[in-house]
Amino acid sequence: MFEIVMGIDDFLIQLVKYWILTLILTESLDAEEAKDDLRRTVPDFDTYLENGQIEVIPYTHGYVKDGVLDSKKILNGWIEKTNQTLDSGYEGLRLSGNSFWLETHWEDFVCYEREVDSGIGKYHMMALCTYSLDNCNIIGIADLVSNHQFVLAKKEGKWARIDNSGRKRAEEAQAKLKETLDNSENLVKERTAELEESYKSLLENEIRLNEAQKMAHIGSWDWDIITDKMYWSDETYRIFEFDPLEFDATYDSFLNYIHPEDRDYVDNAVKAALNGEPYSIDFRIVLADGEECIVHAQSEVIFNDENIPIRMKGTVQDITERKRMEDSLRQSEALLSTFLEQLPVGIGLADTQGRWLVINNMFRRFVSEVIPSRDPENSLRWMAWRADGRLLEQSEWPSERALRGENITLGVDFLYTSDDERGIWTHVSSVPFLNEAGEITGAITVIQDIDEQKRTGETLEKIEKIRIKEIHHRIKNNLQVISSLLSLESERFSDAKMLETLRESQNRVASMALIHEELYEGDKIDTFDFAAYLWKLTSELFSSYNVGNNNISLNLDLEQVYLGMDTAIPLGIIVNELVSNALKHAFPAGSKGEIQIRLRKAETPATNHDISDSGPCSMEKDSFDYILRVADNGKGMPEEIDFENADSLGLKLVNILVEQIDGYIELKRDHGTEFTIWFRNVEE
After folding, report:
1. What is the reported pLDDT for 260?
2. Are strands 93-97 and 423-434 parallel, antiparallel or unpaired?
């Protein structure tokens, strides 16, 4: 707000030079008079009027109405006029007026000036106030100056601008204040943005925390002991199935939802925690629907400087499912342990060092803390034999082999020596124990007590052996009876041919009876020493034909060979036929000679025993197990006799029996007669 103080003589000139304005006239000058005066002073005045750039308004229109000064109405009128000029394309409003005629109400006038000054600065508006110094006293001038930004006064014939120092300082202070406020506002905005970001981050963290608590089923809580108020997280409310709006979160309310049987336990644990003891307990709660849940609570107590508890905060977790799983696991473990303990076999799991990790009651009967082979004292109690009768090495025991990766499912029979020096038969099997990566981390060993079974089997075997021996004995007796009947029957005939036939039949029966006699008297029930049998058989034949040692000699070269009945009986009859033929036909009456019988295993080189390599091809020879040779140095078999198609019953019987034992027979007629037979033991 500006004030011009000047003499009346050049008032209008200076005023018009300074402004293109809206001029508010005093009561001493009406509007038309003012326009006439302005036309003389202002060039193109009428043009300004037509363009609306200058407007002359009577004071009654601008200041008062009905003789009353209304500063608010005046300022609103100026604001309206300013808006009109802005709408017309101008940058603002300039106005000038002289309201000094209001000095009769000086206090109202000063107040009006102050309000106008504070209001004008907020709009695109400039005002020039003109007053006459002649009408002002010192106090009045001071009041006027204090309410204006600066004063224009004519001094020594020149106009000068006098700034309002107090106003200036106030404006500077106001500018500084505005700057401070602007800076503060910026700081507030920045701080607000930071707080909003922090709040957003805090909210996101709280959401994450709630989600994490929900996934883990872990809630948090905080108890203000002084006020007895509790803060529960969302998950805590979910665990207890409480509505936050309905639940009175106090300690007593919390206790009411604990299972009655656990309430004192929880209360005592809390009291102990308030005295400094740890608080980590499991207890049951009862939900609204009556269902029971198991929770785990853990907390810490905060004490003040006087060591008085003021807060208790912690977590609560629903462990119902975990507890049920643990109970189920314990039941399964108990069931498995009971199952293992009651098994009729011993079960053990050893690590790679041979230490037993798991064993049952039956297993403890036979082993110590380590695998027997690694415990010299205990290993002496275990013995097992290979098929060849050799004692099994400890490195070959099933548990040791399993640790090397072998599956010993068939197992090995061991003879275990107990504390009372009693031998107990056991059957031991073992397989590797593998981890998830397929690596061997131990061995699972199973021990079966087969002592009773073994001994029962031995008893049954003895009984069976006795029974079979008895059968052999009866068969032998029956065959001997048949032989005796044939002998008695031969006494009724005088025909030489008939007598020969009866004697041959008697010898055949005797050869079979002799085999059953050997089986009855031997240690084995299904195999016997065929070499020993040949000694007896040939002796019986020589005795039957009344051959003296001085006429025909017998040369036996026999390896010890054990044959089964299915091979021995046909082979015995074959030898009986071949030796009988030699005794009957090879040597004329009174002539001397020799009968040779050789028995060898096929792997023995035939040339070392004068057995010819001729006969079946080498491939066929390799397929046979044994070689039997029956030869004589007599007159030999006539060439006209076809051995394979002979009419003789004896030779036919030989061919049939060789075929029966899947053997091969060969005849040589050089220097006598020689039969060579390749055969297998059909029971092997």
Report:
1. 93
2. unpaired
pLDDT band at 36 (very low <50, low <70, confident <90, very high): confident
Which 3 state secondary structure label does DSSP give 88? Answer: coil
For 489, the 3-state DSSP assignment is: helix
- Give me the pLDDT at residue 613, please: 47
Nearest to 636 by CA among 556, 581, 571: 581
To which H or E segment does residue 294 belong? Answer: strand 292-303
> In sequence order, which residues have a C-beta less than 8 Å from that of residue 89 and are 6 or more positions away?
none
Q: Is the separation of the CB atoms in 129 and 2 below 8 Å?
A: yes
Supply 1's token pair.
């707000």
Residues counted in the chain: 684
Closest CA to 100 of 137, 73, 125, 57: 137
Question: Which one, of 141, 311, 131, 305, lies nearest residue 227 by Cα?
Answer: 311
Could you tell me which residues are beta bridge partners of residue 298? Answer: 280, 315
Looking from the CA of 118 toward its CB, the CA atoms found within 13 Å total 9
Contacts of 57 by beta carbon, 8 Å cutoff, 6+ apart: 22, 23, 24, 25, 31
Contact 547, 586 (CB under 8 A): no
Tokens standing for 129? 């106030």
Question: Contact 303/310 with Cβ under 8 angstroms?
Answer: yes
Reported as a single tens digit per residue, the pLDDT across 573-626 is 888 888 888 888 888 877 888 999 999 988 654 434 444 444 455 446 567 889
| Strands (E) located in 418-507 | 423-434, 440-449
Which 3 state secondary structure label does DSSP give 319? Answer: coil
pLDDT at 577: 82
- Smallest CA-to-CA distance from 655 within 538, 574, 563 is with 574
Per-residue three-class SS string for 261-276: HHHHHHHHHHHHHHCC
CA pair distance 299, 273, nearest whole angstrom: 9
Are the C-beta atoms of residues 369 and 390 closer than 8 Å to each other?
Answer: no
Asked whether the beta carbons of 578 and 675 are under 8 A apart, the reply is yes
For CA atoms 181, 182, 187, 193, the dihedral sign is: positive
Contact 406, 421 (CB under 8 A): no
Contact 327, 304 (CB under 8 A): no
Per-residue pLDDT reduced to its tens digit, 147-172: 676 776 666 667 677 666 666 666 67
pLDDT of residue 262: 94
Range of lowest pLDDT (418-432, 644-658, 660-674)? 644-658
Q: What DSSP letter does each residue of 324-339 carry, written as one string?
A: HHHHHHHHHHHHHHHH
CA 525 to CA 473: how far, in whole Å? 11
As a whole number of angstroms, the distance between CA 489 and CA 412 comes to: 58
What is the spatial distance between Cα 293 and Cα 258, in angstroms, rounded to a whole number? 10
